[in-house]
Structures are given as C-alpha cells and as structure tokens.
Amino acid sequence: RDSNMGHEVLLVDLAGTQNDLATHFGLSIVEDDDADGVTIDAPISAVFGDDWAFLRDNIDDLLDRMTFPTDEGPDLIPADLGLGGADNNLANVPLEERYQKLDGFVEDLVADQYDLVIFDLPGKEDNIALNGLFAARNVVAPLKPGAFERDQLQKLDATLDEISTDLDVDLGLALIIPTIISSQETLSESFVEYVTEEYPEIVGEPVTKTADIGNNQNAGRTLYAVPDDELYATGKRAREAYSANTEQLLTQLTDR
C-alpha cells in the first residue's frame, strides 16, 4: 500500500522461521537450491553476528542480496534459521552495543534506499525484539477484541516506557489497530470503545472481520492484490481501513 503512496518500503521479518510475511506475499523460502522456491543468500541474522562489520564492508550489493521483491510493491527480508542463535549470541555482547545492531544496519545500508522500514517482531521480549524496537522507535499494535488482548496492550505500553527509560531511547506506541471487528458482536463494540477512550490520539480505523484476509493469505497475496469484484463487502471495508491506518501512521512518523 505504501509503495502506491510514493514510498519505497522494506519489510523485515524477525518474528520467527515460519516466514509468515514471505508466505503472505507468495514467496516460498527453501533450504535447498533444488527445491521449488527461493533460498536465502545473505540472512538477516548475520546483522547480529561478530562478522557483520566485515561482511558489510567487503561484500558488494549486500542489501540487494538480502532482499526479495514482492509483487505488491514492498521489498522483503525474510526471517532465517539463524535468528535463534543470534538471540543467544547477543547475550554476550556488551549492553551498550547489544540493542543497536539493527539500528546500525538501517543507518549503514537501508536508509539510502528506503523511505520506510517495517519490522515484524517476535511476541517475546528477547534480544532480537529489543533490537527491532530500538531501530523502529514507533510501535504498531494490531489487536483483536478480548480481555487478554486488552491486558497485553497495557503491558506493552508499560514495557515500552520501561525500555525507553532503561535504554535512554524514545519508544512508544504510534498506532493501535482494532482488528477482526464485527458490528454484530458486543465484544467488538466494547473493545473499540475501550481503546478509543484509553488511546484517543493513536487508535486507528477498526478493521472489519472478513474471510477475505485468510483466504488471500493462503493464496499468497494481500487484499491490495485482489480485484474489487473478487472481494466481499467486508473485504473492501477492511482494505479501506488498512489504507486509512497507513495514512494515519505516516502522519505520526517523523524522518530520522
């Protein structure tokens, strides 16, 4: 969507080896060159390793080798199997450097080529997630209705405040998106009301519950790749909400 708005966008999947983002855009990541799909030549996990400075300074077109184009505009750096080991290795890095690896990568290689970088982060507070938060500074939280999710949102907000203080960095929620919202369900209604009251400045447009999202994920495409006549009315409303949320997010962000 952002590419349609004149931005060069990079998506970075740090959320685990299922490679949900790659699957969502129809990319099949494989381990073997002979298999049907694409192999990772230069993994994102290398950014967190001891050899990164050498690789950065000595390999030509390194960012191009890390990224894959999607059919929908954004480029993608997929997750890789080395991220688990990278998280463990970061525990041995001095604290003042531990959470700045990804930020350095963005500054050194990414910033010249892309206007916007979006990280998909793991749900746990590990060293990889903290690197992502440190690099992004702005957090987008999509949340479905429920007491557990409401609790998670409060914890996330408090955790970001703690991390900001501990690491002396300005982290915060930039956008909260209520998702899987149904006008027929009181739980949806009360959840949207709660988020709107608690976070009026950063709550986004609620995204309608629709079968179109899951159906098209399985087909390896987002709602933006689907012709209007193939979408349900709910799918069209969901896509409009995502567009409105994108525009809202862009007004919240500042250049770095």
TrEMBL record:
Coiled coil: none annotated. Gene3D superfamilies: P-loop containing nucleotide triphosphate hydrolases. Residues 4-170 form the AAA domain. It comes from the Archaea. InterPro entries: AAA_dom, DNA_Partitioning_ATPase, P-loop_NTPase. PANTHER family: COBYRINIC ACID AC-DIAMIDE SYNTHASE, P-LOOP CONTAINING NUCLEOSIDE TRIPHOSPHATE HYDROLASE. This is Chromosome partitioning protein. It comes from Haloarcula rubripromontorii.
